């Protein structure tokens, strides 16, 4: 039992967010959503949205709760839908099940739903509270929210730097900057991200596979590689050009079947195209050339900076030399990763309901 309702709401919403997190990277173009049903002092139903085309989180939780859903409180990380999409409206399912109260973390920015789901529930006499752990939910749904409002995936640039702000030796030879737990973190990130972008320079130099490698785990999946190769320098036999990969090029190179080709030099246009493919999140890995191009176009939304406790002295400093003037960010926080410190910063706001 909980001390009071606020404590109960926060705790159970936290559980709903954890359920949603299980499907991160698997639901696109849909959002990750989790749902918990609480009645008679205990959790009686749990659910999350596993994959686009499958039932929504609320439906799984209602099924799990069975008759115990009547008179219950429902915690859901995204406003229940009110529209007929690939599945019928969850608001109707909740009304039909006779739930008493619905607690929502964040409203749905999808214009088909936005506000209408809550309105439908209230019109049916159900109490609705909105905004419990809203910030956490919005961060978890950042990719979906960006694509639904702006038509393009959310772009995260990750890089490592020494304490004195150096990313690599001047000759760019590969040195490992970060520790083991940061590397594990990066593979966790790949497991949850829809696509990874690299430039041709990185492919030719490092021959990356861009796969997810997490020891002892058999539930991982690989992100879609997106290779920026303007002049067609990457051989079509490169490992990274596996089935489903995307190549962005202006060359007339012919690619095997199963490789998707975007012929454009305009980054905004390319991102819109990736949005059309249902990609909600794009992780920018590799060299400063591609990152600088994204940065100049204001297309880096989030930064993940691994700070490693080393000093390099002479070396390549970060890409920010492309900018002048002081730029504010929309929030930042730090995490300890054993050997390293991870800074997360939001350069562009995460779209709310107003966009
Ligand atoms: C989800 N899972 O748990 C919730 C969603 O095409 P549909 O029928 O799957 O509808 C997708 C939309 O439904 C999605 O864009 C979002 O606005 C809303 N809510 N979607 O995939 C869920 N609650
Ligand atoms: Zn729904």
UniProtKB/TrEMBL annotation:
Transmembrane segments: none
Coiled coil (residue ranges): none
Pathway where it operates: Cofactor biosynthesis; riboflavin biosynthesis; 5-amino-6-(D-ribitylamino)uracil from GTP: step 3/4; Cofactor biosynthesis; riboflavin biosynthesis; 5-amino-6-(D-ribitylamino)uracil from GTP: step 2/4
Catalytic reaction annotation: 2,5-diamino-6-hydroxy-4-(5-phosphoribosylamino)-pyrimidine + H2O + H(+) = 5-amino-6-(5-phospho-D-ribosylamino)uracil + NH4(+); 5-amino-6-(5-phospho-D-ribitylamino)uracil + NADP(+) = 5-amino-6-(5-phospho-D-ribosylamino)uracil + NADPH + H(+)
Ranges where the CMP/dCMP-type deaminase domain occurs: 7-129
Cofactor binding note: Binds 1 zinc ion.
Cofactor annotation: Zn(2+)
Enzyme Commission (EC) number: 3.5.4.26, 1.1.1.193
Gene3D superfamilies in the cross-refs: Cytidine Deaminase, domain 2 (3.40.140.10), Dihydrofolate Reductase, subunit A (3.40.430.10)
Keywords: Hydrolase, Metal-binding, Multifunctional enzyme, NADP, Oxidoreductase, Riboflavin biosynthesis, Zinc
Listed NCBIfam families: eubact_ribD (TIGR00326)
Known function: Converts 2,5-diamino-6-(ribosylamino)-4(3h)-pyrimidinone 5'-phosphate into 5-amino-6-(ribosylamino)-2,4(1h,3h)-pyrimidinedione 5'-phosphate.
Family in the record: In the N-terminal section; belongs to the cytidine and deoxycytidylate deaminase family.
Protein name (Swiss-Prot/TrEMBL): Riboflavin biosynthesis protein RibD
Species: Deinococcus roseus
